[in-house]
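Minutes, methods subgroup
Present: GH (chair), OT, SY

1. OT presented the first of two proteins processed in the latest run. Sequence and structure tokens recorded below as shown on screen.
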Amino acid sequence: MQSRRGCPLDCTFCSTSAIEGRSVRSRSPDRIVKWLAELRETGCRNFNFVDNTFNLPPTYAKDLCRQVIQAELDLNLWCIIYPKWIDTKLVELMRRAGCRQISFGFESGSDRMLRSLNKQFNRQEVSAVSKMFAEAGIERMGFLLLGGPGETKDSVEESLSFADSLKLEALKITVGLRIYPQTPLARTALSEGVLRADEDLLLPRFYLTPELQDWLPVRVATYRTSRPWVS
């Protein structure tokens, strides 16, 4: 289910704004609930909201949850959240609407790297948001993107330690950042000679800072060994 398109956040590696635009366009919550109700009648109960950021704008997310609750559809919902601009009221509404798990790409546990990726949040905010969902009984799947421009061994270790501190139900780690057209990361890769100007990025290409190319895959593999919830 997709209730919104567009994202104005401009993360350096993300292609959403190039594909969907920067302005957020939302379908009316009553239309979304109508679709859910129609699908519920066929026996469907599990729904994954693929909105790039389910919690933005917060007023819309709360209104949508309220209408899902009011419809009494008895659903299991999954969604993607941006770990900022979230309060306990929204989390509680999401729980009551049937949210069972959230995915959130905090991407790094280093504030320096978060700024490099043009994230609008910091470590402290990620911890606070993660705690809110944990206390509501909603499972959390986090994402780390390691190896981007400016990454160092110290920032990787900081990220891995931070991920441990969150006590997530699941964590996915990507070694290297996929390079998408029309992104700041693509421009960086071009300027550093990682890409050719005529290269077709439909074929996956990844940026991995040269200093970590040998070390990082081994370090992540070692980290995963004793953590079965990490993939």
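2. SY then presented the second protein from the same run.
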Amino acid sequence: MRKINFISISSAFLFIIMFTACSSTKEFPLFEYPLDWKDTAVREKTISEYSQFLSGKKIFLDPGHGGEDRRNTSHDKLVIEADVNLRVSLALKKYLEQAGVNILISRDKDATVDLGYRSVLANNSGADLFISVHHNAPGKTEDDYTNYTSVYYHAKQIDYEYEPCNQDMARYIERDLSYVMGNPVGLGSFDGTYSDYNIYPGEGFSVLRKTKIPAVLIEGGFHTSRLEEMRLNNEDFNQIQAWGIFRGLAKYFKAGIPKIFALTDSTKLDSNKLSLSFLLEDENGINHKMISVFFNKQEIEYTFDKSTNILKVELEQLTNGTYPLRIICANKNGNHSLPFHKSIVVSNDAQIEIRD
């Protein structure tokens, strides 16, 4: 009687299964649709819920490049950064306006806007925030694999020009943008936010250095990546990118932003001493361990009453002149106050004025 070789049959059966599985290749989506975006009703409900934190705000959007500046492209020239920047910005504009935000924008079509003029427009706009939208490229032209999402703020923590509120905003945007895109944050940062001094030491990006209101610059991904370029010309994906930025901004405002009020705008020197008082206000509570005061660009001592949220500064031996005063504080959620800069003006009659 002939014996059946079960091992051979099993091997052949396994081969057939493997061959069948491999021959019917499964297609995987290039990106996921966020659950709070995919369904229109849920999307509208989410925007409505976030509107309580966004309504009445004024935001300046800056789609990078455009017009005569269309040189940044993918390796196959099919993805043009200027166009992707504009599509993402216009989608973000729509979401923010639905939430009650007043939007100003440097361009709403393929047009040339000089780099320096973008900051002029932002500074004259009266906007609360400035957001510049870009997509990245590596230093080496042959690099077609590097891809991550990042958000830049101006200067570094050791620099007087550094405003911590900019990095706060960058962190919120980066977290949700990176999440909806499914992108990593890069090896140069633990949270995906970077100082622009990393790119241009001591100077940073022009639009961040010259813009006087709180500002960040977004690099939504690398248009040179062979994988990312497959997604960046997809309008659904561009809207999802905008959705991530929108959610990050909404959560940033939801966490609260402390406000600082000078309790007097003029006073007099008393025995060559000056005492100034400021109210620090936030519904989430002020973190008294995260307060800094600078006078004449030097950090100085202060007193803070936790029961009244009154901060007091005493200055001595002031001669005639103008002195810069700067205060930074944070709430218990870790969000810092927007830039608070005043000028202390001492005149001949010992009269003191506090000016913006």
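Chair's summary of item 2: DSSP finds nine helices and 16 strands in the chain.
Next meeting: continue with the remaining queue.
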